[in-house]
Amino acid sequence: MSDNTRETNAFTEENNCVDTEFIKCDGCGANMVFDPDKQVLSCPHCGSQKQFNLHTYADEINLSEGFSEDRWEGNVDQYECDNCGAKVVLSAGETANKCPFCGTAHVQKSQSLTGLKPNALLPFTFGKDRALELSKAWAKGKFFAPKKFKKKLQAENVNGVYVPCFTFDSWTTSEYVGRIGRTYTRTVGSGKNRRVETYTVWKDISGVHYDNFDDLLFSAGSKCDQKQINKLAPFDTNNSKIYDENYLLGFMAYRYDYEISSCWGMAKNVIDSSVRSNILSGYVYDKVAYLNVSTRHDKVTYKYVMLPVYVGNFNYAKKPYNFYINGNTGKVWGKTPKSFWKILLTVAIPIGVVVGGWFILRALGVI
Ligand SMILES: [Zn+2]
Ligand SMILES: [Zn+2]
C-alpha cells in the first residue's frame, strides 16, 4: 500500500492534538475495513477492494536482546470499559460504541499509554455473519439454554477482538540429580506369622536432559485468559503474519494486562514441570524422594501475537455471559445461561415417574 492512500486527519481533543489514521475508499471515500473472507481491505459502503501485503510471516524476537521497546502509540487509541475494566485498542479514528466483553456502552477513551506493539498477528479467516451462524448453531445444541437466549443472539452480541498472547521458544539443557523408589511385595515369616509386606528399592539418578519447546502460548489478557485460549486452541501461531494495522480496521484489539516478563515467568514454570515429567518418564518408579533440576534456556525467542477471537456477550437474568469463537477454525466455547424450568422438568419428570409408579403399584397391592 502506498502512503498516499492513507489520509491523516487531525482533530483537537481536550487540548491534545491527536493524529488519526484510517484508509479511505478510492471510490466513495468511506473508511475501509479488513474483510476476513477475502483477506483484503474492503469498503462497507460501495464494496470496492484494496490489497495489502499479506504473505509475510512474523519473525521470532530473540529474548537475549531484551523485550521489544516498540510501542503501540499514535496509530491506535485505547478505550477502557467503566463497567468491566476491559481495555480495547482501535485504529485511530474509529470509536468503540460498546464493550465487546460486557456489551455496555460505558467505554471511555483512556489517556494511558497503550503499551508494547505486537510483532505478529493471526488474521481472522471468516466474517461476522459466519461467526453469528456458528454462535446460533452452538446455542441450539445447548439443551439447557433458555429459548430466549437462543432467539436473542444478534450480530451486535458478537464482536471480532484480537486477543494478546505471547509465544515462547526455548532449547533447554537440564542437569538433574534425584532419588526414586519402586515398591515391591514379599512374603515373610512362616506358619501363623506368614504375611505379605511391602518394601521399597531406592535408586539414585542423575543425568543431562535436552528438550525443545516451540511456540508455547500464553494469554496476556485477563478477559480472554489462558483457560479460554486453551479451550479455543489450537491456533496456528507458527504461520502468524507480521503485525500490520490494516488487519485491525473494523476490528478491536484487546490490550494485554500481563507484562511479557510475567508471561515468560509462567512459561518457565510450564517448561520446568514438563522437563521434570519428561525426565521421570525415562525411569520406572512409583515414589520420588527428591528431584533437583537445574535448567539452562538457550535460543529463547518470543512473539507478541494477536489472535483472532469473536467474543460473544449477552445478559440473561441480569447476569453477563461470554462465549468465544476461534476466528481461524470456528471452534466455539463458552457458558450459556441455564433455564430454571428446563432443569426442573428434567429432574422432575424421572422423579414423577418413580413416585407415580410407586403409588400405582401400591394401589394394585403389588407392594
Ligand atoms: Zn467505497
Ligand atoms: Zn465491559
Can you tell me about this structure?
With about 375 residues, the chain is α+β, with helices and mostly antiparallel strands. The protein has 3 domains: about 1-50, no CATH class; about 55-180 and about 205-335, no CATH class; about 340-365. The chain contains 5 helices and 17 strands. It has helices spanning about 130-140, 145-150, 225-230, 260-280, 340-365; strands at about 5-15, 15-25, 35, 40, 50, 60, 75-80, 85-90, 105-110, 120, 160-190, 195-220, 240, 250-255, 285-315, 320-325, 330-335. The strands form 3 sheets. Strands 6, 7, 8, 9, 10, 11, 12, 13, 14, 15, 16 and 17 form a 12-stranded mixed β-sheet that branches. Strand 11 (about 160-190) and strand 12 (about 195-220) form a beta hairpin. The chain is flat. The protein starts with 5 loop residues before the first strand and ends with a helix. The model is unreliable at about 1-20 (pLDDT under 50). The site of one zinc ion (ZN) has 8 residues, from loops. One zinc ion binds next to loops.
